[in-house]
Amino acid sequence: MAASFFSRLLNRFCGVLLLTVFLCGLNASRPVINQELSNIFNELWRLDVNRWTPGIDYTISVQARAGYVNQGSHVVRDHASLPLFSNVTEDKFLNVTTLSRFTKLLDNYETSTGVAEVVTAEERTEVNLFLDAVLETEVMKRAHKYLVSKGKSSSNLRLFKSQLHLIWFHLYHRDRNTGLDSCGFEHVFVGETKSGTEILGFHNWIQFYLQEKNGNLDYKGYKAKNHDLPDQDDHVLNLQFSWHGLVKPVGSAFIGTSPEFELAVFTIIFLMNTERSTTVLVNIDQCQMELVVIRHGRSLGTAYPKLLSSNSRHLRQHSL
Q1: Which residues form the EndoU domain (predicted)?
Q2: Where are the beta strands (DSSP E) in the chain?
């Protein structure tokens, strides 16, 4: 009788222990807000004077939710009859130094992987002028100061510029059967195609707008959960689009941010981690998002935001 009692007690204890371990495992798998990075990124956000203001500098029309599309499929239903962007203040492309120098870089690349890049003297000059302009912004100055404080960058501005060049503009093999055909900047800010079947990268709103304006890109609708619909003032969008006849089933991009802000944010994540793939959960302004950075040796392979919640909905949900 006593043995039976102790046996039942032991089984109950083991069951509770296993349940506790299981629940702890679930909690361990959930991403935790990186408060330090959230703090520095919000500083950069406030310093981003070249950021575009929704409803003033541009208007977006998110329209309807996009449907499911298999990777590599060219058949997609259009859930957005209108362009994503309208009423864009294009004077900023001419009057803001980082923007004007950024747009000059967008036609410097062969978008198809497997085609070796040929960099001209003029293109090298354009890259140097762009980095010089970025380094003069308060956004990148603050990012540089932070990285120096963490021992991740030299305080010497020339060495830091070389570090940025290595991360973003160093050419490498994305398709190993050919010459040097890719770099982090091309992949993230310009976009690439693979074997004429799929879109790689393409995570920048300015390139999105310019390609949409020129008729090369068609916005198909947003991607979001039912309880978190996007708004016209969202700073990050998960979206679907076609580009030169190819379909990106799910893409994502900051909206309205300056190139220097995106460079600063992703450079910090790249240098603060050594893993091949890094995902951090942060709150920036009213948005909660995951920021993903994947390395390609000492250079950047890809980097993009993934919106989880906007307009402070994650804060309201947490308070319930």
Answers
A1: 33-309
A2: 59-60, 85-86, 192-194, 198-200, 217-222, 236-243, 246-254, 277-284, 287-296, 299-309
- The alpha-carbon radius of gyration of the chain (Å, integer) is 22
Active-site residue identified among 220, 223, 248, 296? 248
Closest alpha carbon to 299 in 261, 319, 258, 270: 270
215: nearest Cα among 243, 247, 256: 243
Q: Residue 240: helix, strand or coil by DSSP? A: strand
Which strands sit side by side in the sheet containing 277-284, from one edge to the other? Answer: 277-284, 287-296, 299-309
Q: Are 76 and 242 in contact (CB under 8 A)?
A: yes
Residues belonging to the chain: 320
Q: Per-residue pLDDT tens for 274-305?
A: 999 999 999 999 899 999 999 999 999 999 99
Which of the residues 144, 203, 220, 235 is marked catalytic? 203
pTM: 0.88
Whether 103 and 132 have beta carbons less than 8 Å apart is answered as: no
Instruction: Specify the higher pLDDT residue, 264 or 312.
Output: 264
- CB burial of residue 20 (10 Å; 0-12, 13-18, 19+): exposed
- Tell me the mean pLDDT in the region 13-30: 45
The single-letter code of the amino acid at 301 is: G
Verify whether residue 203 is a known catalytic residue: yes
